[in-house]
Amino acid sequence: RRMMRASWVFALFILLWATAVCARDVDPYKILDVSRRANDGEIKRAYRKLSLRYHPDKQQGKSTEDVERAQDRFVKIQKAYEVLSDAGKRRNYDMTGYADPKDAYTKQQGEPSNGRRRGAAPGAAGRGGWDTGGKFGGFGFTQADPINSETTNLTPQNFAKTVLKSNKPWLVQIYHDGSEMCQRVAPVWEQTARAMDGVARLGRVNIALYPELVAKVAPLHPFSSSHVNPRDLPVVVGFPRNCGAFWCRRKYRGMMKESALSAFAMDHLAGYEDVPALTRESLATFLEGDPKKVKFVYFNSRAGPASPLLRRAATEYRNDVSVAQVHYKQSEAAYWIRKHGMHTPPAVLVLKEAGEKIIEQDVTGKDKLKALLIEHKLQILPELRSSSLKSTGCQPGGLVRVCVAAIGVDGFHFTTARDTLRAVKMTLQSPSSPSATLSAALEHKELSMVWIDARRQRGVREALFAGDEHIPRIVAMRFHGGEEKMDLSTYDGSMIRADIAAWISNIFEGDDEGMVSGVEFPKLAVDSLGFYEQALRFQGSTLSWAQYFGAELVYMSIEAGPAVPVGMILTVVMIPMLFQRPKRRKKPMRKRSEMDQDAVIELNDDALECLKEQHMKSLVVMMFIESSEDDQETFKKLRNAFWREPILSFGVVNIRKASGWSDFAESSGAAAGSVLVWHPMRTKFQIIGSGDGTIPHPVLCSKIEKILDGMSSWQDGVWPVQAKT
Q1: Distance from first CA to last CA of the chain, Å, rounded?
Q2: Tell me: the pLDDT tens digits for 69-78?
Q3: Mean pLDDT computed over every residue of the chain
Q4: What is the pairing mode between strands 250-252 and 235-239?
Q5: Distance of CA 463 to CAs 393, 471, 473, 658, Å?
Q6: Which strand (E) or helix (H) includes residue 236?
Q7: What pairs with residue 52 in β-bridges?
Q8: Strand 357-360's sheet: what is its strand order?
Q9: Alpha-carbon separation of residue 121 from 117, 133, 136, 484, 661 (angstroms)
Q10: pTM here?
Q11: In DSSP terms, which residues pair with 298 in a beta bridge?
């Protein structure tokens, strides 16, 4: 047995030496089955668990193949832990893919670089053909092994469908297998793909194979038809969701680091909201924020930006949850233990209504964090909205059999009803629940309790709410499988928890007393942002695009010279000038003389005939007189008040001289001194009063103002016909 152990030790030594000297560094994160963001405690626990499982002493009684396989795995576990337990080696691996950067240089120098692929026939050219002079792909690179990647290979055939029409953002890398920088950043690219966690998808385009596609994805500058300079590879370009065309691309100009690439995708492509980093001083203010929202605080032992999962949750659950993160420092451990009972980070603090606090310790892994976000994204008694229908289950066709809702508008009575229903739910969820049936129903999502704003949800108010909306109601909706119809019952008792719980129990068990059958489930109003929130979003989007285009102009002037941006700026300035209409010269305004102010035109037969022919052009204001001695002072003031109005024509008509007007005055009820206004069609008129002083001048002015505003009624009448001479 001792000889067997000694042989195992010798074999392990040989394997460790061979791995350290000859083998390319494998991914230690995969071997230990931990995430890239794992802390030292998580790595140590994973190492101990796997070491115990694959230790040679645990392989007795197994076949030779199983023993050799376990030995190989045990060596890899030791090597992986050696890399990840050392901060320097771990940092080197994250950046280059090697625990020791010298290995990368040594192994690259040792690889063949004779201009042809390894294993190719002598004299055969490498990728790029005989006329490349031994340069890889015609871009000045020497032959190298392909850079393998788990991300999508993009081609001209699949790019439009895969990227431009995708409902997810995309990060696209332009690369070349012979580029040394592309080889160096390959591990960073793979790390970014794993860290995105569904936020964005990653793909690559090989410039040696598809230069035409690269010219569209990453041109030399926005107005160029040439592809990017190969010496600048790798180049990363972002495409937002449902982009549809190449013009909406955004070029990434930061460092090739996982955190920077993730931040670019979340900020500029996905549009995710930022998660604030709090201290123990600012945490108290955060917890006292909007009382309608759940407070979700993630405590992490490692400082850094928020994970994509947290930012995605902060965006998708923005109506119900406020998300933040706190750096848990060991120097502040005593404070967190005393204040919140937080002793094992990463941990989660959830604060809901009624002061309910939930602490989850040792939240390792994104799956557990995601489960907590889904479980606690709603309040104890959530509001029923169109966006929360699926989460609450309060709709026909789901698992929920009975949905109990408090309906009303904000006020003392509605707050009381809501608090009472919340207390009933908390009582049913407690260990001392008075009804085991309802407790099980809540646990298995067969019973749901919500509240509804009757003022916002008009459809619910009209369908389920009877009477004064300021008097709250508690209703129960009982669903029948996939049917759209439901049974409805309204609680008419006192606000006592035990009575409400008993009423809910009777309905859940099938009691039909007081039930109204065949009620259609109301349609909920679509959630919409308020004006202030829309203005803030528009401002943020506008500033983001302005900053991006400003930066692109600067880069364009550097890369392509100042001619392109200057020409673009001049074009933007000149376009409005081309479509601008020439300004009309204002006609000089004629000044009125004292003679004009006193003169009133007397309309003879020729003038009246002319005004009749000019129909649809002006309103005619006329005053009937019998002689030139009649009082016309009020009519003159009326004319002076509206003399600037181009649509009005003023004049007096002598009904004794003008043919046909005497009969018209007699038939219409007008007399000498009457003031009439004729419609432009000359088939309608209106008598507004008398211009001889019996009616005040302001009264006549107000009536003409109403006519000009279209607020007066007309009498039917025909413009008198003058006799032919």
Answers
A1: 146
A2: 888 888 888 8
A3: 79
A4: antiparallel
A5: 19, 16, 13, 70
A6: strand 235-239
A7: none
A8: 277-278, 321-327, 294-300, 347-351, 357-360
A9: 9, 17, 16, 72, 115
A10: 0.55
A11: 325, 348
